[in-house]
Amino acid sequence: MTLRLSLAAAIIAGMACISANAATDTVTVNVSGTLTRPPCTLTSSKTLTVNFGTMRYDQIAAASMVDIPVTMTCPANSALSISVKASNVFQGSTTQAYAGKDNLAYLMYWSSDNSAVNVTGVKRNLTNQSGTVDLSMKAKLTALGAVTEGTFNASTVISIEYL
User: Fold this and answer.
1) Is the pLDDT of residue 15 over 80?
2) pLDDT, tens digit, for every residue of 82-120?
3) Contact, 106 vs 99, CB < 8 A?
């Protein structure tokens, strides 16, 4: 029993010596980073088709406009720019895109205000956007002179830059 008491006393005395000789250090941890808003998300298709169907060339002026649905979802206070670039534009025009047939053009209009879309790649800037952002357009054929029968096709690229 005395051996146990002596051993316990030695352990306590040893711990006291360790405590008396202990050193203290501190470590500072700095926490930092950058938070960014989530980006907008394109909710419409990345490939759209504007099909004017079959019509008589003498009825081009009366043809209906075709919808081009372009929509995004954006967090509050988003800014974006959109540009539209036709593969070929009639000389001297910023709104009449070549439809792939002599004297046949197509024009695009913003659905929001029916103003003509510049199809030469000029950016349109939008600020303070949030939720569903509607960038939809409409396309309309127009004859710029005598048009003959046959097929036509062309393409346009819509570029959207956003955060």
Assistant:
1) no
2) 999 999 999 999 999 999 999 999 999 999 999 999 999
3) yes
Torsion from C-alpha of 128, 136, 119, 130, nearest 10 degrees: 10
User: Is a pLDDT exceeding 50 seen at residue 7?
Assistant: no
Give the side-chain half-sphere CA count within 13 A for 62.
Answer: 6
* CA gap 42, 72 in Å, rounded: 4
Distance CA 80, CA 72 (A): 11
Measured in degrees and rounded to the nearest 5, phi and psi for residue 84 equal: -125, 125
Burial class (CB in 10 A: 0-12, 13-18, 19+), 80: buried
